[in-house]
Specification:
By secondary structure, this protein is of the alpha/beta class. Helices cover 26% and strands 23% of the residues. The chain is built from 8 helices and 12 strands. The radius of gyration is 17 Å and the shape is globular.
């Protein structure tokens, strides 16, 4: 069974294991991009199984490991050990949380030169709890989001989030019918001007699809999906 799903010429998805987040089972997903120079860029690395490593070897050399926010760091140490020459990237909040790892300069508003030819980024700030860096792959017009948008389907929720947990997903606005950031995180965006500016920048990028770490990713009509999922930020 293949662990990588190719969704465009140079973009793959890697399905990870289920993780426990404060008692809630969360599915995990990585995005793997082969850059125009042949290097491989891995976003939010999932658990590095032997089979996955073998499939990755057929794509190209692993050169970049990327954490989009301070929650998505769980398996970075495994990948750093397996690929010691790979550069590790993340916002300052991730870097503070993982002093055991050697990061490059913190991600912010500027795209690192190493992958500037293929990717853009948008830094969402304004929450006193967590920031997130959203990525955009130009050639495939793919937006890559970690926790800023979650979209769990009914089948998943009925299987894994039982009783009151499932009701929280509906009330919290993180279902495929009503996708978005979890309600508790939304409420921490006390300074929404910065987040709205980031959203405007994101809306300016033509989007064909949206891949999220958690839930059902959007295969078509990416622009409309983004506007619906980020409408909670207001006008």
């Amino acid at each position: 069974m293949t662990l990588l799903e190719q969704i465009d010429d140079s973009v793959w998805l890697a399905k990870g294991e289920m993780v426990n987040f404060y008692g809630f089972p969360y599915p995990t997903r990585s995005v793997v991009v082969r850059l125009s120079n042949g290097d491989v860029w891995v976003w939010s690395p999932v658990k590095l199984r032997h089979e996955l490593r073998a499939e990755l070897a057929r794509i190209g050399p692993i050169a970049h490991l990327v954490s989009p926010n301070k929650i998505h760091h769980l398996y970075l140490h495994e990948w750093a050990a397996a690929y010691p020459d790979a550069k590790i990237w993340g916002p300052a909040s991730t870097i503070r949380k993982r002093p055991d790892l050697h990061f490059c300069a913190p991600l912010g508003d500027t795209v690192p030169a190493e992958w500037q030819a293929d990717l853009d980024l948008v830094w969402f700030r304004g929450s006193f709890v967590m920031d997130e860096v959203v990525f955009y792959h130009r050639a495939s017009r793919t937006v890559i989001v970690a926790d800023l948008i979650e979209a769990f389907g009914d089948h998943f929720l009925r299987k894994y989030w039982l009783g009151w947990r499932r009701q929280l997903a509906y009330l919290g606005g993180i279902t495929s019918a009503n996708p978005g950031a979890p309600l508790d995180w939304r409420l921490t965006f006390v300074t929404r001007k910065q987040a709205r500016a980031a959203r405007a920048k994101l809306f300016g990028l033509p989007c064909a699809r949206v891949v999220m770490a958690h839930g059902e990713w959007q295969r078509t009509n990416g622009d409309a999906f983004l506007r619906r999922s980020l409408s909670w930020l207001g006008p």
